[in-house]
């Protein structure tokens, strides 16, 4: 991508697809897992992309306490003069998803690799695309990789409330048009909910994606499978107990050290790999 060529959404998506297919980080390597049963396992399939204008009014609504809160930093705070926000969703491979349905209590090793090594790949992809935009002569920031990014799990005196952050990939994806929330509080995209998100804020002006929904939970069929799947009992129709979820995740960290995870609210569901059909 030359320095004088203005990249468009299609170009950026193709770059992301090629990186996903070719990067060694998207495949389990010997240095992280000597077990031959997992060597070479692919973590993510090709991503999808949606774009929002940086001044979309929905970003300001995320400052409300019933959304994220006043600690959320809108795009302009990350990059003064921002014009666009790009949100990517990478679905897990079928092997990763299927493996996590075998045991009802514990996560599969495939899922744990996708959770930890998979995040390392996402960070690499996010930095790669950010740098490509910069090489084309535009400014770009990956909030989750920025030194200003803050996430609070348990610190009592943090300006960020517990179990929250100043940039939410799920909420940003919702604004960009990738999907809506489910009872599990995950985001349901056209490729389902089993996957990961990342985003980039840039002064490159791109055509916004038209949101195909008008409400927060439009894609959720409210089947309740995620509620019964949750081994921590953290989910109910009344919401999610972050405390119970975090306690269970810590337990998996003790059992599977140095990895941790769960994902039972993302696999074995009607919304695992698609937008579910509503009961008639």
Side by side, the strands of the main sheet go 1-2-8-3
Instruction: Figure out the total of helices.
Output: 8
Q: The CATH topology is what?
A: NADH Oxidase
Average pLDDT taken over every residue: 94
Radius of gyration: 18 Å
Give the class from helix and strand content and strand pairing.
alpha+beta
Strand content: 5-15%
Largest sheet: 4 strands, antiparallel
Q: In the CATH hierarchy, what is the class?
A: Alpha Beta
What is the CATH-assigned architecture? 3-Layer(aba) Sandwich
Categorize the overall geometry. globular
The level of helicity is 25-40%
Order of helices and strands: HEHHEHHEEEHEEEHEEH
The beta-strand count equals 10
The multimeric state of the shown protein is: single chain
- Quote the distance from N terminus to C terminus: 48 Å
Number of domains: 1
- List segments where confidence is low: pLDDT < 50 over at least 5 consecutive residues: none
Could you please describe the fold and organization of this structure?
The chain has 280 residues and is α+β, with helices and mostly antiparallel strands. It has one domain: NADH Oxidase, CATH 3.40.109. It is 30% helix and 14% strand. It has 8 helices and 10 strands. The protein has helices spanning 9-22, 57-61, 75-78, 94-99, 109-135, 169-176, 225-229, 242-256, and strands at residues 48-53, 84-91, 140-141, 151-152, 164-165, 179-181, 187-189, 195-202, 235-236, 239-240. The longest helix is centred in the middle third of the chain and has 27 residues, at 109-135. The relative contact order is 0.17.
